[in-house]
Amino acid sequence: MSLGGKTEELPLIAFEAEMKRYVYINDNESSHELYCDNRISNRKYTVLNFLPKNLWEQFSRFMNQYFLLIACLQLWSLITPVNPASTWGPLIFIFAVSASKEAWDDYNRYLSDKKANEKLVWVVRQGIRKHIQAQDIHVGNIVWLRENDEVPCDLVLIGTSDPQGLCSVETSALDGETDLKTRVIPTACMGIDFELLHKIKGAIECPKPDKDIRRFDANLRLFPPFIDNDVCPLTIKNTILQSCYLRNTEWACGVAIYTGNETKLGMSRGIPEPKLTAMDAMIDKLTGAIFVFQIVVVMVLGIAGNVWKDTEARKQWYVLYPLEGPWYELLVIPLRFELLCSIMIPISIKVSLDLVKSLYAKFIDWDSEMIDYETGIPSHATNTAISEDLGQVEYIMTDKTGTLTENRMIFRRCCISGVFYGNESGDALKDTRLLNAVAGSSPDVVQFLTVMAICNTVIPMKSKTGAILYKAQSQDEDALVNAAAQLHMAYVNKNANILEIRFNSSVIKYEVLETLEFTSDRKRMSVVVKDCQSGKIVLLSKGADEAILPYAYAGQQTRTFIEAVEQYGQLGLRTLCLAWRELTEDEYQEWSLMFKEASSTLVDREWRIAEVCQRLEHDFEVLGVTAIEDRLQDGVPETIETLRKAGINFWMLTGDKQNTAIQIALSCNFISPEPKGQLLLIDGKTEDEVCRSLERVLLTMRITSSEPK
């Protein structure tokens, strides 16, 4: 089936191939049989399976199985020394309380699902915008959102209120990050009038549902009269996912591609597992050990009791044992001893534990000092069953940026063509030598500032007062663009692919031809731009030193830049290297074809794009190094020191250079400076290298006299 055909010729809204699905935009045919609707369900139970499923979960614990065994034995009047109600009453009560708690939690989940499913949203049906419930959205529908609306399903953006096709989304429900992300409509949808969006027709070729929230490799084709079947590649930046919120954007609309439990969030939910704390696991083990001991005691006493019965008991007139008993007579005495020994594991232990856990969780809620002073929100234990595990934490694994640090980047120093700026004052923006070089339009400095200003994905916005504000997905990019603006290289406007830079009093225009986005493997990002005045095509790049310096053109001396990176790293600053090179028209055109082909593939897109980028990103002229400060949050060193004294171990994950990471770790009190502590480095890029490094470190620890080790 060709994607180029008109929608009238297609019998279905969409169909699913082996590894991908085709979604037809705004088609009024029914797709109910092909894909699930947008009804979400986080419930653990149903009315029919609640009782058996809950009982199965409760009796999966050995302690509960033991109490049930004892309660069943007490129903046999021949062996029980007590009333069965003394065990059955507490047992039924405990299980009823646990089941009621589970039922209440599941009922709250049902109410939450019901509220989400019945929320009213705007959807285009038969060319008209209608209010429908979120659960009635189907794949291929066009959904309209207003500012601060929650996204009801996974959408591919096709229009926003912003002239440049941008919108901001809050993704904290997906990834925990509070910074707003910028999303953009596909290039094929640029310029489509607001009134025509609800009439748009086309097809989206996308992968089957998955839970990767950072990746979406798809293609879009719009049908005439909008555009004649030109393939437009889609990435995650062209999507807004379920449970995100639209922010700072008047309206946006998109095509539903994944709905219900097939959204990326729905695929990652999984089946909730019953939580078992370390104490519960320990008590189950102890219960098992005591039960084994009981069996041994019962067997010894049972054999002794039966022997005494056959030898002595029948001689005593007051015992009244019959001469012949039933076949199970040998079991009576051992089972009686089992019931007598059952007090070794009292049923009150379960009652006491559940009561103490609930009370402990309440103490957390009542703690007046555990409060966020900025928002006034107190602490709240959402799960009363696992609160005691808080006291058994041995390891804390933490990210650095935004967790230990403020994630507010400040441009501090730079090295341009071997000249260091900001070393004396600690602020390059106040260095008179740099200010004089900018005023004198030094070619090296101008080129360096140009890369700072436009090698990014930042969008300039004008405020009501006329001031220019920057929308940046990365705080590093925001710091660089603002620093360039303070040095009179201001990024003032972006209209489609045309950028305007104001340097001193002149305006320079560049056309963005391609953007080579940053990835964790490449560790750099580049833009290919064309100077609108001279027609010259240049590649501008920035990235980590290991991703830029080795690719400098043959003959360029990079020792000064390496020294700058090392120096800034020792100060705990984040470093980026800036570079550029000029391209010929033929070189760019040949590479552009390969880049477009790689960008539109659905299989291994990221790897193919990286391979094509490598063909262009070489023979750089390195311009310099920037150094950015990310300050620690208040109280971080003191908090970490206190937790370390409590015996808690810390691991910090960071993408910084090793020297930078060490300086941050010292300032955070992660590690102690010499001679109080000894720093041992484990380096390696392969498993064998890491093993050798570990062996060397272990040998050092055995022979060292440093305390503490």
UniProtKB/TrEMBL annotation:
<dbReference type="InterPro" id="IPR023299">
    <property type="entry name" value="ATPase_P-typ_cyto_dom_N"/>
</dbReference>
<dbReference type="Pfam" id="PF13246">
    <property type="entry name" value="Cation_ATPase"/>
</dbReference>
<dbReference type="Pfam" id="PF16209">
    <property type="entry name" value="PhoLip_ATPase_N"/>
</dbReference>
<dbReference type="InterPro" id="IPR001757">
    <property type="entry name" value="P_typ_ATPase"/>
</dbReference>
<dbReference type="InterPro" id="IPR018303">
    <property type="entry name" value="ATPase_P-typ_P_site"/>
</dbReference>
<protein>
    <recommendedName>
        <fullName>Phospholipid-transporting ATPase</fullName>
    </recommendedName>
</protein>
<dbReference type="Pfam" id="PF00122">
    <property type="entry name" value="E1-E2_ATPase"/>
</dbReference>
<dbReference type="InterPro" id="IPR023298">
    <property type="entry name" value="ATPase_P-typ_TM_dom_sf"/>
</dbReference>
<dbReference type="InterPro" id="IPR023214">
    <property type="entry name" value="HAD_sf"/>
</dbReference>
<dbReference type="InterPro" id="IPR059000">
    <property type="entry name" value="ATPase_P-type_domA"/>
</dbReference>
<dbReference type="InterPro" id="IPR032631">
    <property type="entry name" value="P-type_ATPase_N"/>
</dbReference>
<keyword id="KW-0812">Transmembrane</keyword>
<feature type="transmembrane region" description="Helical">
    <location>
        <begin position="286"/>
        <end position="308"/>
    </location>
</feature>
<feature type="domain" description="P-type ATPase A">
    <location>
        <begin position="119"/>
        <end position="180"/>
    </location>
</feature>
<keyword id="KW-1133">Transmembrane helix</keyword>
<keyword id="KW-0472">Membrane</keyword>
<dbReference type="InterPro" id="IPR036412">
    <property type="entry name" value="HAD-like_sf"/>
</dbReference>
<feature type="domain" description="P-type ATPase N-terminal">
    <location>
        <begin position="23"/>
        <end position="88"/>
    </location>
</feature>
<dbReference type="InterPro" id="IPR008250">
    <property type="entry name" value="ATPase_P-typ_transduc_dom_A_sf"/>
</dbReference>
